[in-house]
Write a structure and sequence with these properties.
It is a single chain. Helices cover 41% and strands 14% of the residues. It has nine helices and seven strands, in the order βαβαβαβααβαβαααβ. Helix 1 crosses helix 9 and helix 5 packs parallel to helix 6.
């Protein structure tokens, strides 16, 4: 999706923010970053490990301005301390946070949730996919402007498997449900500070995350065939929703889970034609 055209403008001019979770050019986080950059945002990107840095750095360097990268292991407090200390040293303040990080073992993303989920796998999925947003939100909020100065905004990325049973999504569905609940509680806590906190529930897209789920291709086709718009979820739509929630256009919107999935989430029974 790196060849997508994202509308340019000045909605994010003068705003700075951290994007967590870019893995390659097909990442939803990268699409969001492109849209924010096109609207004038100054960006920082977190990454974990040399291999990820090698994939992400060329993308970051293709953006206008002076985006920069900072290492962060969301499962390690010392690493997160160093990450946000680097942001504070570089910027002093930040205006927004994009959290698009999730992980579950591949063996646990297939077959039976009951029989394939291990204690360690459950803890790891919850730590990386849900608690990491709580932790990042706490750190980022301490760097955001006061309510009088305009406050700030945060988004996390979720999926319909948090609300309904999706084959093979398993422990990730449970982790995403925890992420959505966390988003609402964080929104409650940070609201008085003028910080808005929301989640985007994107439909199936061709990302590394989708590739890790058994039956991902079938999920993509079903999402298109059963959706109201009869189309795949488009990166432009997800990035546009993120722009709305993170910019001043999103005033008065917080604690929300915004579905961007061509209407798939609202379908109770798919239209499969009349019998006979």
């Amino acid at each position: 999706m790196s060849d997508s055209v994202f509308p340019a403008g000045n909605l994010m001019k003068g705003k700075r923010g951290l994007v967590m979770g870019v893995a390659n050019k097909n990442s939803i986080a990268w699409g969001i970053a492109q849209q924010l950059a096109a609207q004038g945002a100054e960006l920082a990107f977190s990454y974990q490990g040399e291999e990820l840095e090698k994939r992400v750095r060329p993308l970051v360097e293709s953006l206008p301005g002076e985006p920069f990268m900072v290492t962060a292991d969301v499962t390690d407090d010392a690493s997160m301390d160093a990450c946000f200390e680097a942001l504070k040293k570089k910027w002093g303040k930040m205006d927004f946070l994009v959290h698009a990080i999730a992980f579950a073992g591949k063996d646990e993303l297939q077959g039976s949730f009951t029989h394939n989920t291990t204690r360690e796998g459950f803890k790891r999925a919850m730590d990386v996919s849900a608690f990491s947003f709580v932790d990042a939100a706490k750190r980022a909020s301490a760097m955001m402007p006061s309510r009088e100065e305009g406050g700030g905004a945060m988004i996390s990325m979720t999926y319909l498997g948090s609300e309904r049973v999706v084959p093979n999504y398993n422990v990730m569905g449970v982790a995403k449900a925890a992420l959505e609940a966390s988003t609402r509680y964080i929104a409650r806590d940070l609201g008085p500070l003028g910080i808005r906190v929301n989640a985007i529930s994107a439909g199936p897209m061709r990302t590394l995350a989708m590739a890790g789920i058994s039956g991902g291709r079938t999920l993509m086709k079903t999402g298109k065939d059963w959706s109201m718009l009869k189309e795949d979820t488009r990166m432009e739509g997800v990035a546009g929703a993120a722009l709305y929630l993170l910019s001043d256009l999103g005033h008065s919107c917080t604690g929300e889970v915004l579905h961007v999935d061509a209407g798939f989430h609202a379908v109770g029974v798919p239209d499969i034609g009349e019998e006979g």
